[in-house]
Design brief:
Blueprint lengths: L6 H23 L6 H21 L5 H24 L5 H16 L4
Helix pairs in contact: 1-2, 1-3, 3-4
């Protein structure tokens, strides 16, 4: 089971997740860094996400925090890609997302 940690560390982890998702969407909008404003904003969001993650791991185990950060960020980015950009997944992609969510859930028992 996960050890108890302070709510502030969950807040930092949540901020890191939101910033990572923002960075991913902005990278898509920059069209391979052809448009400078979203490109610069993506870089700033990514740096801020890593900063927030570094604060989160002060009170959450690295493997747990990074797993949640990556897993939740990936699933949320996929959903936003589908809704904002009309991207679609094949069945294998849905299976992969399900396995990622299962893995993040299993971290609770690590």
């Amino acid at each position: 089971m996960l050890p108890d940690f302070e709510p502030i560390h969950l807040l930092y982890l949540s901020i890191a997740i939101v910033l990572e998702i923002g960075a991913n969407v902005l990278m898509k909008q920059s069209h391979g860094f052809a448009y400078k404003r979203p490109a610069v904003a993506a870089i700033v969001c990514a740096l801020a996400a890593f900063t927030a993650l570094s604060y989160a791991i002060r009170g959450i185990q690295l493997s747990v925090a990074y797993g949640i950060w990556g897993g939740v960020g990936l699933v949320a980015t996929t959903v936003l890609g589908m809704t904002l950009f009309g991207e679609r997944l094949r069945v294998s992609g849905w299976v992969g997302l399900g396995l990622i969510m299962l893995g993040v859930g299993l971290l609770k028992f690590a």
